[in-house]
Amino acid sequence: MLVLSRKEGERLKLGDSIVITVVKVAGDKVRLGIEAPSNVLVLRDELELHEEVAEAIAPAA
User: Fold this and answer.
1) C-alpha dihedral (2, 4, 11, 57), degrees to nearest 10
2) Which among 57, 15, 54, 7 is positioned nearest to 32, based on CA atoms?
3) Closest to 36 in 3D by CA, of 54, 21, 14, 17
4) Where does the UniProt annotation locate this protein (predicted)?
5) Continuous H helices in 1-61
6) Does residue 34 contact residue 18 with C-beta atoms inside 8 Å?
7) pLDDT tens figures, 15-61
8) Do 14 and 4 form a contact (C-beta atoms < 8 A)?
């Protein structure tokens, strides 16, 4: 796992098409903005989806 420190307004780039921006840091919460192509499914880790549900909500390739 890569661990990075970022300040508000700073960005991370994943590959050529995904950008994560630290929008706000307040107490123990961090607000992130995620820019990704529409064919990339972005889910919170705590959302444990069954494979068939993930396929149903993902755009058709």
Assistant:
1) 40
2) 7
3) 17
4) Cytoplasm
5) 51-57
6) yes
7) 999 999 999 999 999 999 999 999 998 888 776 666 666 667 766 65
8) no
